């Protein structure tokens, strides 16, 4: 009887989450309304969550009676009721933070910042709910007063919260991928490439895009091996460019 009651509650819970769902998407900008902001936590009152990508874009499932809020650097926006959103496919907002774009020119300033490792620790603390997520399952718990073992009902219920678990798995994958991308950017940076290669400054962006290493290699290679990879890749890149220039020149002088 008791098990049937629990099962009925679970079925009602699942059915309630299937119907009435919508999708909201958009872009989060900084206070200038021109620069997109990545790694903004977007969450609903029904506990769906996502983070903005490198272009500041997001997509999230909501219920009709939901509200949305956006959190960046531990500061949250007011809640936005879904019923007040006129365009669900382009709900763009600006948050009260200034992010400097890639090509913005600044006056001479002195900048102090935390190192990559501290930033990574802070990021893991901010998003520990996602980093520490593990798949729920059937577990037993021990009563601290009687010492008797029993079924962990919270774990049982979590196991049937399919959409929540799917969201958390997705978020865990996103924050891990973002952390890996940030680590590659930290190690494989433009200053290093310019310092150890003979690639023209105008070609550095193209080189870094074409020869961007994978996370596993960056994580496990020694500094010597990593530098050698960049050098070897630069020799190949320069040789390819020379070959292409020669081919273009040959085509240009051929008689028509």
Notable traits:
three-stranded mixed β-sheet, single chain, five-stranded antiparallel β-sheet, Immunoglobulin-like, 256 residues, alpha+beta
Model description:
The protein has nine helices and ten strands. The chain has 256 residues and is an alpha+beta fold. The chain folds into three domains: 101 residues, Immunoglobulin-like; 75 residues, no CATH class; 66 residues. Strand 9 and strand 10 form a beta hairpin. The protein starts with a helix and ends with a helix.
Percent of sequence in beta strands:
15-25%
CATH class descriptor name of the largest domain: Mainly Beta
- Class based on secondary structure composition and strand pairing: alpha+beta
| CATH topology category name of the largest domain | Immunoglobulin-like
Question: In terms of topology, how is this protein built?
Answer:
Layout lengths: L1 H17 L2 E9 L11 E4 L4 E3 L5 E7 L3 E6 L2 E2 L3 E2 L11 E2 L21 H11 L1 H4 L8 E3 L6 E3 L1 H7 L2 H26 L2 H7 L7 H7 L4 H6 L2 H31 L3
Parallel strand pairs: 1-8
Antiparallel strand pairs: 1-4, 2-3, 2-5, 5-6, 5-7, 9-10
Write a brief structural summary.
By secondary structure, this protein is of the alpha+beta class. The chain has helices spanning 2-18, 116-126, 128-131, 153-159, 162-187, 190-196, 204-210, 215-220, 223-253, and strands spanning 21-29, 41-44, 49-51, 57-63, 67-72, 75-76, 80-81, 93-94, 140-142, 149-151.
């Amino acid at each position: 009887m008791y098990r049937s009651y629990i099962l009925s509650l679970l079925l009602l819970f699942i059915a309630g989450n299937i119907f009435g769902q919508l999708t909201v998407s958009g872009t989060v900008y900084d206070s200038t309304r021109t620069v997109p902001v990545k790694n903004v936590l977007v969450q609903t009152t029904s506990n769906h969550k996502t983070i903005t990508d490198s272009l500041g874009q997001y997509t999230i499932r909501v219920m009709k009676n939901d509200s949305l809020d956006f959190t960046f650097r531990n500061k949250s926006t007011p809640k936005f009721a879904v019923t007040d959103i006129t365009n669900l496919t382009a709900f763009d907002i600006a948050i009260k933070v200034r992010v400097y774009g890639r090509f913005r020119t600044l006056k001479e300033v002195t900048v102090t910042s935390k190192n990559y490792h501290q930033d990574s620790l802070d990021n893991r603390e901010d998003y520990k709910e996602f980093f520490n997520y593990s798949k729920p399952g059937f577990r037993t718990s021990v009563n601290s007063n009687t010492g008797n073992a029993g079924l962990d009902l919270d774990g049982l219920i979590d196991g049937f919260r399919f959409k929540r678990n799917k969201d958390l798995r997705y978020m865990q994958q996103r924050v891990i991928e973002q952390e890996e991308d940030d680590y590659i950017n930290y190690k494989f940076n433009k200053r290093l490439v310019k310092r150890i290669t003979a690639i023209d400054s105008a070609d550095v962006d193209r080189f870094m895009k074409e020869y961007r290493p994978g996370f596993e290699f960056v994580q496990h290679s020694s500094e010597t091996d990593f530098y050698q990879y960049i050098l070897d890749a630069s020799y190949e890149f320069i040789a390819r460019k020379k070959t292409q220039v020669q081919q273009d020149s040959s085509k240009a002088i051929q008689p028509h």
